[in-house]
Design goal:
Length: 149
């Protein structure tokens, strides 16, 4: 089986042509399998083997290494995750909403971070509620003058 062997696929542009880069740790079995690929070449510039990028060659790569090495396509294939397909969230409505005078606002830095990471959702529960519950017990002391910030 895999025995810890893995190959990472990378996009390469060599002489204006698209190629599939094959990056792996030194291993005799993987090296032998790579050299058996059709029209595989070594690139001094990228320090990895490469093969022309087309559907046929991609299929050959997966078939050749099936059961011998794990193929890591994280850098090669586009991620269809929710974070990458979404547009930035506009949460100005949340920032500008009216609150009771006793309710502390969520810190702007925290909201900025949620917006940047595209985590904020209109349909989710209030993301700042945990922060407010942390601050609520201290409101009593602040009002009575015991708590100095």
């Amino acid at each position: 089986m895999f025995k810890g062997r893995s190959i990472t696929l990378k996009h390469l542009l060599i002489d204006g042509n698209k190629h599939i880069g094959l990056q792996f740790k030194s291993d005799k079995v993987v090296q032998a399998l790579v050299e058996k690929l059709p029209k595989v070449k070594w690139s001094e510039e990228f320090a990895m083997y490469h093969i022309e990028n087309n559907k046929t060659n991609l299929g050959v790569i997966f078939n050749k290494f099936r059961g011998e090495a794990w193929i890591n396509g994280n850098y090669f294939f586009e991620s269809k995750s929710e974070l990458n397909t979404e547009k930035p969230k506009n949460i100005s409505w949340y920032r500008n909403r009216s609150l009771d005078k006793n309710v502390k606002r969520c810190p702007t830095e925290y909201l900025d971070k949620l917006e940047i990471k595209k985590i904020f959702r209109e349909h989710r529960k209030d993301l700042c509620a945990p922060l407010r519950t942390l601050h609520q017990p201290f409101q009593k002391y602040r009002a009575e003058g015991y708590y100095r910030a």
